[in-house]
Design goal:
Immunoglobulin-like, 2 domains
Length: 317
């Protein structure tokens, strides 16, 4: 049985033409995982504000967890997900002692979603506060800036290469009496702007619309965020001063075989910086066929979102 962490899968990149591009999906891959909301709040009654072990945790916000995966080798076969929660560890990427196994999920590709509260059935739901304590205690910052809990998903579609293992950090924070103005929200992708090689704007596709490609003809892609997706929040710097920080969003691009990108990752331009004329990445069809494109965005604080577009390519140049 082959287990591989999503970070390792995404991080692989071909060094020579003999290696497969990391942005091309040829077998079972976990492309992204999302928690909605990306930051769960809870009520805490503490006898010692500096020691979470003295706190009683209650009214934990539920999270809806979504796993985006695809298996081109078994496109019509359902996937089975075995999810687990555990304290974040700096020594092992795989959940071990102290883990909570969630109810297994299954469904058709490519996105399976479920409620964290619904998957933590019976007595296990009562163990979540203890898991939050353990995660805070294992953190070097003791929960400062957010308590990290590891969400692990093992996905199986019957692929010969085995089960794929993905990880995502879930953030938990005490609910403040005056509110939580810095609470994170997931970015939202409204569409995909398509740009011809000469810079002509070809319009914006919305989720589910088909991208038309010509073999050998490069097109620019510029994902379009919903207004307000890039957030500015207050945090404490190393000198103890409160500072305003604006999120730096990063994109990952993926496609099934038959098309590739000039770069599989790109940063969202900073405020005041002009958009690249030909988009954040450029896509070229290499064969006459149909496929699927995914653009996944990460906000650096646990927020994730994506857009999925089918594509079809015609005769080449």
């Amino acid at each position: 049985m082959k287990w591989s962490a999503i970070a390792a899968v995404i991080g692989l990149a071909g060094c020579t033409p003999s290696f497969q591009s990391a942005s091309q999906v040829t077998d079972l891959r976990i492309l992204a995982m999302q928690a909605e909301p990306p930051e769960s709040l809870f009520d805490a009654q503490c006898s010692d504000l500096h020691d979470l072990a003295t706190c009683t945790v209650s009214n934990i916000d539920d999270m809806h967890l979504s796993v985006l995966f695809v298996d081109p080798v078994h496109p019509h076969q359902s996937g089975a997900i075995s999810p687990t929660l555990c304290p974040t560890s700096t020594t092992s990427p795989i959940c071990g002692a102290g883990s909570l196994a969630l109810e297994a999920q299954s469904g058709p590709q490519d996105t399976i979603g479920f409620s964290l509260e619904g998957a933590l059935l019976g007595s296990d739901l009562q163990k979540l506060p203890a898991l939050i304590y353990a995660s805070a205690e294992s953190s070097a910052l003791k929960g400062f800036g957010g308590i990290d809990v590891e969400f692990q998903a093992a996905v199986d579609t019957g692929d010969a290469n085995g089960i794929q293992l993905g990880h995502k950090t879930l953030i938990f924070n005490p609910r403040l009496p005056a509110g939580n103005p810095n609470r994170n929200h997931n970015p939202s992708v409204a569409g995909m702007k398509v740009i011809a090689a000469n810079g002509t704007d070809l319009g914006v596709l919305t989720p589910g619309q088909t991208l038309q490609l010509t073999v050998g003809a490069e097109v620019g892609l510029r994902p379009v965020l919903t207004p307000g997706s890039i957030e500015t929040y207050q945090t404490i710097d190393l000198t103890g001063q409160s500072v305003a920080v604006t999120e730096n969003l990063v994109w990952d691009f993926y496609s099934t075989t038959g098309a590739d990108f000039d770069n599989g990752t790109a940063s969202e331009p900073l405020v005041g910086v002009a958009d690249p004329v030909l988009g954040l990445t450029r896509m070229t069809a290499t064969k006459i066929r149909s496929g699927t494109l995914w653009a996944v965005v990460h906000d650096g604080r646990g927020g994730t979102s994506w857009i999925e577009l089918p594509w079809i390519s015609g005769g080449g140049l």
